[in-house]
Write a structure and sequence with these properties.
Length: 457
């Protein structure tokens, strides 16, 4: 079987993005647009070559050195970019040429393009689409018999050609032999000072070599991204596809239009997602969960049967049956054990909470290791920072921490200890102990009434 190689053109600066970030690194549903193109290419080709240019070091830093890169040092157009790949291409086989800024094309469309190319025996096959408003795209010009004659960039369209609504998506399949023979002969466009890859199509036709077209029925998939407005439109389309896939896999999404789920996020069957929920990064959610409204999970592993409402969870592990929120914040490095309750206005940071423990409301737990069956009363605070360093607190199984207690780390609270409400704990508490630390109570009879009278005056 002949070798199939993907060449991804990712050298453009993307000036309309108005950003120091290379265009192909702008994110779409949590991943750079080049990531989406690369994933589709990997699904249908055995090897991928990325042509970088502007910000090449940032591209390589993100994707790593395991990929094969070539740099277009002088950015002289798409034809010049593809010329950079010629020395590393084999003598025969097929080259699938993709643009790094068309992230909505998936493996199905690419596989259909490749299949048509194989069947037709053409030297090149172009992926095209029909658009109601083709502004900004090159047009496919056909001869009287319907065969492809050439591709004309919008800048050079005649009035007759401007009404054509079949556009070039910038995706091609080439026979490598034809590519090696004709690509070095590509003429420079004198008006722009660039080498247009689209001119190669006319050269192949003039040489009597076949050029075919594969039409993508859904024109939205051919959307190229040049500015942030187009980026937002592409993101909306991708979110729609992500949500549709999850719903077909057994996930209930109450309002898909207000649910934002990144590419690569996994969600188990029978999970219900309420509006204004955001699932980002490497998040994986188990079965039978209830997320939202207003849940925001980033790079988090979630077990089965978890309830999370109006809360933010980042880079943490949430085990089965956990109840979170409303208005909780679980910060990176936390592990919330089975059947734990994390209530309203609770913040957990870099801590582990053991099975069945409760942190119901108005508490801060930082750099702590809490055993199973612990109750943290309302307003209890783990004082983990002395102004210079963070310190650890250990609370053993079955301990009870009364309301408005301050646990000043480093500290160890023994198994089944009881910390009285309002205590400030600065020394370790042995297992089974009662710990009370509060000032004595004084009562001045009649004084309260006098204070209230003054207040009324």
């Amino acid at each position: 079987m002949e070798e199939l190689i993907a060449v991804i053109l990712a050298a453009g600066e993307g000036t309309r993005m108005k950003s120091s970030l290379p265009k192909v690194l702008h994110r779409l549903c949590g991943k750079p647009m080049l990531w989406h193109v690369l994933e589709s290419a990997k699904a249908v080709t055995g090897r991928q070559v990325i042509i970088t240019g502007y910000g090449s070091e940032k591209v390589r830093e993100y994707f790593g050195e395991e990929l094969f890169y070539l740099e277009q040092r002088e950015r002289l157009g798409t034809g010049h970019a593809l010329q950079q790949s010629l020395p590393c291409l084999p003598e025969a086989g097929l080259a699938l040429v993709l643009c790094g800024d068309t992230p909505l094309l998936e493996k199905e469309e690419l596989q259909e393009l490749i299949s048509l190319h194989h069947r037709s025996g053409a030297a090149a096959t172009v992926l095209t689409s029909l658009m109601k408003d083709p502004s900004g795209y090159g047009r496919i010009v056909r001869d009287e018999s319907g065969g492809i004659l050439k591709i004309v960039e919008e800048l050079h369209l005649t009035p007759e050609e401007r009404v054509i609504n079949e556009i070039n998506t910038g995706t091609y399949c080439f026979n490598i032999q034809a590519l090696k023979s004709f690509l070095p002969l590509l003429p420079k466009n004198e008006e722009k000072g660039e080498y247009y890859l689209t001119d190669l199509v006319h050269m192949l036709v003039e040489a009597g070599l076949g050029v075919k077209a594969h039409l993508v029925e859904d024109a939205r998939l051919a959307l190229g991204i040049n500015d942030r407005l187009q980026l937002s439109r592409a993101a909306a389309l991708m979110r729609e596809k992500i949500n549709e896939r999850l719903m077909l896999e057994g996930v209930t999404i109450i309002d898909p239009a207000s649910t934002y789920i990144d590419a690569g996020v996994e969600v188990g069957a029978d999970t219900v997602i309420y509006p204004q929920t955001v699932l980002e990064g490497k998040t994986k959610v188990g079965k039978d969960c209830c997320l939202g409204p207003g849940a925001h999970l980033i790079d988090t592993l979630v077990g089965d049967g978890v309830l999370c409402r109006h809360s933010l969870v980042r880079e943490s592990i949430i085990e089965n049956g956990v109840n979170i929120g409303p208005y909780a914040h679980i910060r990176p490095g936390s592990k919330i054990g089975t059947s734990v309750k994390i209530g309203d206005f609770v913040e957990i940071k870099n801590s582990s909470i053991g099975q069945g423990s409760k942190v119901p409301h108005l508490s801060y737990v930082g750099d702590a290791e809490i055993g199973p069956g612990v109750n943290m009363g309302a307003g209890s605070i783990v004082v983990n920072y002395d102004g210079r360093r963070k310190h650890k607190t250990i609370i053993e199984e079955g301990a009870f921490i009364g309301c408005n207690s301050n646990l000043v780390a480093p500290l160890s609270i023994g198994k089944e200890s009881f910390i009285a409400a309002g205590s400030t704990v600065t020394r370790d508490v042995p297992p089974g102990s009662l710990m009370i630390s509060r000032p004595g109570q004084e009562i001045k009879k009649g004084l309260g009434k006098r204070f209230l009278q003054k207040k009324k005056e």
